[in-house]
Design a protein that fits this description.
The chain is of the alpha+beta class. The chain has helices at 25-32, 36-87, 127-185; strands spanning 12-13, 16-17, 91-98, 101-107, 112-118, 121-126.
Length: 186
């Protein structure tokens, strides 16, 4: 077996540091100059950092998962407006004036659409520009969701590696203590 105490793995993924698996606990402790308790403390701290990053990534994932249906809904509305425009037919719709208060609207032929960009900013676009922008936003949101899923999987792997390493260091420490007690007893 190799004399290295750590196995090779990618050093990080998008700012998430990779966990080091300690194959030979005793060699690792000698090389690092740590005792078992200090090593366990550092590993527990890293595990907590992973958990914090996981919470942030899960929140981003939830936000994107909520945003995608909204973008699709906007795309459907733009598509409906374009269809009504080509047919010359007016669109009758209910819209929310304020929370729980709706009004009927008759939308005649329209060439532009206003989209909320965020931060209380709304811009007017042609129907074609709005459609292109929303499609691009949908693609970006789906791509970001895929990247987040990969990041979460990488993070879960690092959590597992860290938990296994904590168990290995703890078990090594318990074994060393038992051997010392047995040596004292004889």
């Amino acid at each position: 077996m190799a004399s290295s105490s750590l196995s090779s793995s990618p050093s990080e993924r998008r700012g998430i540091p990779a966990a080091a698996f300690i194959e030979d606990v005793q060699s690792h402790l000698l090389q690092s100059g740590l005792d078992a308790n200090s090593c366990l403390g550092l590993l527990q701290e890293r595990l907590q950092q992973y958990k914090l990053v996981e919470m942030k990534l899960l929140a981003q994932q939830r936000d994107l998962q909520a945003k995608i249906p909204d973008i699709k809904k906007c795309l459907d509305i733009v598509s409906t407006l374009q269809e009504k425009r080509t047919s010359g037919e007016a669109l009758i719709s209910d819209f929310e004036v304020s929370e729980g208060i709706y009004a009927k609207a008759r939308i005649e032929e329209t060439n532009s659409i206003c989209l909320w960009l965020g931060a209380n900013v709304m811009l007017e676009y042609s129907c074609e520009e709005a459609d292109a922008l929303l499609k691009k936003n949908l693609e970006n949101a789906k791509a970001s969701l895929e990247v987040l899923a990969d990041d979460l999987q990488f993070l879960r792997d690092q959590v597992t590696i860290t938990q296994v390493t904590i168990a290995r260091v703890y078990n090594w420490d318990v074994h060393q203590r038992r051997m010392k007690q047995a040596a004292k007893a004889t």
